[in-house]
Amino acid sequence: MRKYVNKEQYTLGELKEAKRKANHEEKSKIQIIILIYKGKRVAEISKYMGISEVTIYEYIDKYNAGGLVGLLKVRYNERGRKTKLSKEEVEELKEIIKKSPQEIGYGESTNWSTLSIADYIKHYYNVEMTRSGVREMLVRNRMSYTRPTYVLAKADAKNQEIFKSEVEELKKL
User: Fold this and answer.
1) Is the dihedral of CA 22, 55, 74, 132 positive or negative?
2) How many domains does the chain have?
3) Which residue among 14, 37, 54, 167 sits deepest, i.e. has the most Cβ atoms within 10 Å of its Cβ?
4) Do 120 and 96 meet the contact criterion of CB atoms below 8 Å apart?
């Protein structure tokens, strides 16, 4: 059975631009729609991309029903355990962690860690979360998580030269 995509929703250029801005999982979904848009067969795409034909048909149906929004919509809360924080609390937390803990008067740290976020959630929302639970919540809500890195102070060039000469003298001993 040959499936087609609704070409009236987006142009090929708009799909390519959306693919350029998308994350890895979204890129593969958009790529499938682009290939169907160009007239490739589902069986061909399935073999090429290593994705089942059923999944490709589901992507086409989602795209035809709701465009890119329907295709890329992630439904985390439709399965599994309910989230510990409400949508409103998560949105509030997103705004809070855009600032440093120091800026909002929550400790002396200049960076949030999963431990400090979990502690903040416990203190203000009375909800206990593990560090890994906090990390998963950040990812689920499309927030990036990176550990802070240190920036070394610029060294004094004169002192560096003195140090190098002292090391050279020590090597000669």
Assistant:
1) negative
2) 2
3) 37
4) yes
Which spans in the chain are helix H?
Answer: 12-21, 24-37, 42-49, 53-72, 87-96, 114-125, 131-140, 157-172
- CATH number of the domain at 49, please: 1.10.10
Domain check: are 69 and 81 in the same one? no
Q: Which range of residues forms the domain containing residue 34? A: 12-73
User: At CB < 8 A and 24+ separation, what contacts does 54-58 make?
Assistant: 56/32, 57/3
Distance of CA 101 to the CA centre of its chain: 22
**What's the predicted TM-score (pTM) here?**
0.46
How far apart are the two ends of the chain, measured CA to CA in Å? 83
CA distance 39 to 37: 5
Token duo for residue 110:
């200049």
Give the separation between CA 111 and CA 104, rounded to whole angstroms: 12
Same-domain status, 96 and 139? yes
Joined tokens for residue 85: 């924080």
Q: Contact, 45 vs 35, CB < 8 A?
A: yes
For residue range 41-62, list pLDDT tens digits in order: 999 999 988 999 999 999 999 9
pLDDT band at 4 (very low <50, low <70, confident <90, very high): confident
* Residue 1 within any structural domain of the chain: no
